Amino acid sequence: MTDLLRCALPKEPNPQLATASRKPWIVEQALLGLKEARRMPSHATPHLARWFRKNRKLGSRDRKIVGEIIHGIIRHEALLLRVGARSPTELVERWADMMDGDRFESTASSSAAEDYATALNVPGDVAREWLNVLGVEEAAAYAQAISHRPPMQIRANLLRTDRETLASALLAENIETVAVEGVDTALTLKGRANLLGTNAFKKGLFEVQDASSQRFCNAIPIKPGQRVLDLCAGAGGKSLALAARGARVSAYDIRDNALQELVERATRAKAAIAIDTPEPAPIVVVDAPCSGSGRLRRNPALRWGLTDATHLEAQRELIDAGASLVQPGGLLAYATCSILMRENQHAPSGNEWTRIEEQTLWPHRDETDGFFWALWRRD
Ligand SMILES: C[S@@+](CC[C@H](N)C(=O)[O-])C[C@H]1O[C@@H](n2cnc3c(N)ncnc32)[C@H](O)[C@@H]1O
Asked: What's the predicted TM-score (pTM) here?
């Protein structure tokens, strides 16, 4: 019988990490970091990254251990509380027990949904939905897949190179990569590296991008030189990938500072992307704001207050705004990095639309972040 309460626990103990996690200095730093993360719950990951950079007392080895503890507690907090942690210090102690291989067998199970919510450390309604959609066995596999830090993935910039040449260039800088099957631009990093410090990055040969986003961009049938409006372009992850596929991209977003970053990235990538007010186009992409529920493995703190409700109205408005800009015979591409149904059920208003493709990617099935897209053809 699948034990949903314990399905996200590490498969193997890590006694070395457990011992290191009990050192008073490490505990002190982990508690400080956790406090920092909770100070800015909605931006915990970048805030923590800044805190680590500023915290000069921590050497690189200790930083890694402290990071493991903080992110581990964020992933498993509900379980650690359920097995008896009563204070932040006890959270760290129970986490170290967990790393030692303690499976907390004396803690009794409850209902399947409650156990699963505890295991994932997400709100009950989110756990219930995933359990219903996936069934018990797959739900357990999903929980495992999002309980570890995933490898970094990059996209070879086809405007400047190809994947094999890029892999060799990175190897020359002592960075090993593996090609991602079925995604001709994607490489997965072996281990960790300061990618942004490489010559290959400075020359615009690649961008950091999960294979899920690359698969989405590859799924859009673009003719060479065709105009694509990216209505929620942000800092340009999708715009850059689409431009590298031969699109002439017009990018729009309500955040000017994100568009500024896009311009810098486009310059480095030698990608022709225009920042424009939205005009009708044959292809319109709506990469909508969402809960980010597909990114829990990469950004553990997204668990805090996770809900599919916040962006529903904006998503509805944006899909219609995007649809109104698609030229007759054209295509609307709607995407989110969420795997919660309500965020992915929107459809453009009017009866001139035919859904021609729909895809949901799951971390445990596809070895990517969770991601959703739908393509709609306008009559
Ligand atoms: C998921 S992010 C986009 C990420 C981006 N496409 C990328 O690949 O890097 C969603 C974006 O929608 C933008 N947004 C929110 N409301 C918007 C609106 N009404 N019009 C245009 N953009 C909007 C946000 O500023 C945010 O950058």
From this structure: 0.96
